[in-house]
Amino acid sequence: MTYGTYLRKITDPANRADPYPLYAELRKTPVLRDEGGPYLVSTYWEIHGLLHDPRLSSDPRNLDPDAAAALAVTEEADDPTLPPSFLRLDPPEHDRLRRIATYPFGPPHTPRRIHDMRGELARIVTDLIDDFEGRDRVDLVDDFAYPFPVTVICRLLGVPRADEPLFHAWADTMLTSLDPAAAEADVAQRRRAVRQARVELGMYLSELIEDRRRAPAEDMLSSLIHGDGPDGRMSHAELVSTAVLLLIAGHETTVNLIANGMLTLLRHQDVLKRLHDDSRLAVPLVEEVLRYEPPVQLLPHRTPLTDIDIAGVTIPKGAAIWLVLASGNRDPKRFPDPDRFDPDRKDNQHLGFGSGIHICYGAPLARLEGQIALAELARRLENPRLLEDPPPYRHNAVLRGPRHLPVGFDGVRPAREP
């Protein structure tokens, strides 16, 4: 198959339920490209090397104009009111903004922030599962996997939970800019919709930031506004751009992590029973879910700052590179028997959160959310079972997960005493 064939198949929603045979075929040519398209990198060590290579840029402004135009890239820089988030920047700008954002979030400055959220996370999970009482089926996405991380990120940032329908709609629109298949739609219309959603979300968060500037609260927005770390403070525009990133990234990938994890457990009832009997299994189990069914399948729109030789192929400066993380996670040269789900897997250095300087900012929180969510679902649901397999998937090829996950059960066990 050619690049065009692979890309069409990978981005085709009809293949979303099981893209892994496509990835296995793709790995036969670790770096693949046809005329006019991006370079697809699909093997573990090549992806890992590029993620740690300072010559690889995450800033789409460094793409060759022809490559950017061919891919219909929707750049954050298209919104003149906001700078790019640190996710789309290179050092030194990336490092400064990420350090400031990390200051109130985790190590080394606030090392216990995530750990101290454990009790609150458990209470949110308990309340959501309590709401299953009197029912014999739920949509695990709409009834659990979505509201849990949304509630968490709202409380963490200080965003009113009642405003969730607003930013849910904005987030859904903005995330189409990550979907390669969306490039086939009306590009101009899509860019206008994404820009409008980003402007509206930016205005909403800008007003919230001004409220916190006048009246600080016990939340991350207030800490970012009033903190004085070694790198100083963000400008107002940088604050808004960072808040947009954290609000969206803080829940979208975790929704997929929980949904993919529960789907995998329901397909592996022996592992589900082990987790029911011993919640400590949740720690390695979440790592294996991140390898086996990663929420983020692709990292598109990377580009080299100079010519790069990889796996016998020279990728020229400015070319588009797509890193197929989910393929690297199933590379048999890195993971023995990679298509087997094994929570006891040793040396599980997966690419589920990426790697290098852009490794997922919220990984510690996402891990803890996944561990608590899956352990409690396994413990409290009596005889849980899939009602539709495969379930319907979201169209997005980058952020892969079920759109709905119908699950039946015989009852709900009591919550643990606090």
From TrEMBL:
Family: Belongs to the cytochrome P450 family.
Organism: Streptomyces bingchenggensis (strain BCW-1)
Top-level taxon of origin: Bacteria
Keyword Metal-binding: yes
Name by which UniProt lists this protein: Cytochrome P450 family protein
Pfam family name, one: p450
Keyword Metal-binding: yes
CDD domains in UniProt: CYP164-like (cd20625)
Gene name of the encoded protein: cyp29
GO molecular function annotation: heme binding; iron ion binding; monooxygenase activity; oxidoreductase activity, acting on paired donors, with incorporation or reduction of molecular oxygen
Keywords for the protein's UniProt record, in alphabetical order: Heme, Iron, Metal-binding, Monooxygenase, Oxidoreductase
PANTHER family xref list: CYTOCHROME P450 YJIB-RELATED (PTHR46696:SF1), P450, PUTATIVE (EUROFUNG)-RELATED (PTHR46696)
Gene3D superfamilies: Cytochrome P450
